[in-house]
Write a structure and sequence with these properties.
Chain lengths: 198, 198
């Protein structure tokens, strides 16, 4: 690489990293445990990476936890353009998928080509939720919010019509697919909190 | 592992993960690029992990980037008890180190013993800044704030007496030790912004 190629590569990388700062202003439905404010998608990303590292022993032997952490590092960056869509809200899934694909084009497109393609492939793999790494990453991503909501006395569920049946479908299915031990641990706590027979 | 050992292991892991939520309320001196508010240490941790992944080609061949990312994932957790200390402020370093060691004891101590010891060893390695992984992690951790401050027109430097000489010592030394290419790129921009001969 010449000095000028080196400099333009770094210019592009830093442009992407500066744009990524905006993920700190994308708010999610889930509040912090202390109820002081809503969680943003950047700190959420940090927290689910910590969940993945701590709960790595819940993954099958074929899961490579460092790839899972990389997926979770990148997984919400598209929200800078496409916003966050609460799982208990109603959303036009096709429109949301199109918006996220356009966001991935623009945002990863700020990077040098090799990194654009590598990051996009990892994000596509996460979204497709087919490989063991992606299935575990999705399970972890879904596990953090109900744990937070239980710890915060259900504050994040207010305003949504949350039932055990809905949690089984929207949270239980992806968690039990990638980390069945976590769902076995969580579900009785959800049932008790919601006052519904587990 | 028996079912009850499995459950108490998971109880301990989730207790740690819930306590970690408080890192989202530890504020740093650096504002977001848009100046809307100060950055917190959880979203900062996410951002420096992204810096490490994107700028991995600035590391020497002996650096294992996934270990760097794990270090950065854990590096600020002690601030939950010990607070953040701006590099341009004045601080009693011995008292700060003692407070951080006590914080590491308490916080990592929430985890099962094997994870407590593994996380503590990784955090100790980062703090000691001697291994290639730790030296690169420190360089990346120091690179993000001046990039943010330049992009935000120096907002984060107001109220501190920031000079190129101080930046050379507090930022330039750790960055150039772990990632000399980043410092060669950054220093002329800092000199131009501060209006000082580079
Ligand atoms: Ca830091």
């Amino acid at each position: 690489m010449t000095a000028s190629e080196f400099t333009s590569r770094l210019d592009a990388q830093v442009a992407f990293l500066k744009e990524a700062d905006r993920l700190k202003s994308i708010l999610r439905a889930t509040p912090l445990i202390d109820g002081s404010r809503k969680e943003n998608s950047a700190e959420h990303s940090w927290h689910v990476m910590l969940y993945a590292l701590v709960l790595a022993d819940q993954a099958g032997p074929e899961v490579r936890i460092d790839r899972v952490i990389r997926m979770l590092l990148l997984h919400d960056i598209v929200e800078i353009d496409a916003g966050d869509h609460p799982i208990h809200g109603n959303v036009d899934h096709a429109a949301q998928e199109a918006a996220e694909a356009a966001a991935a084009d623009r945002l990863f497109g700020l990077l040098p080509d090799d990194q654009r393609d590598g990051f996009r492939a990892l994000w596509d793999e996460f979204e497709a939720a087919e490989t063991p790494d992606a299935v575990f990453a999705k399970a972890i991503d879904r596990f953090q919010s109900p744990v937070t909501n239980l710890a915060g006395n259900g504050l994040g569920w207010r305003g949504y019509d949350v039932t055990l049946e809905k949690l089984d479908a929207r949270v239980g299915r992806p968690i039990s697919r990638g980390a069945p031990g976590l769902w076995a641990w969580l579900r009785p706590k959800l049932a008790a909190f919601l006052g519904q027979p587990g």
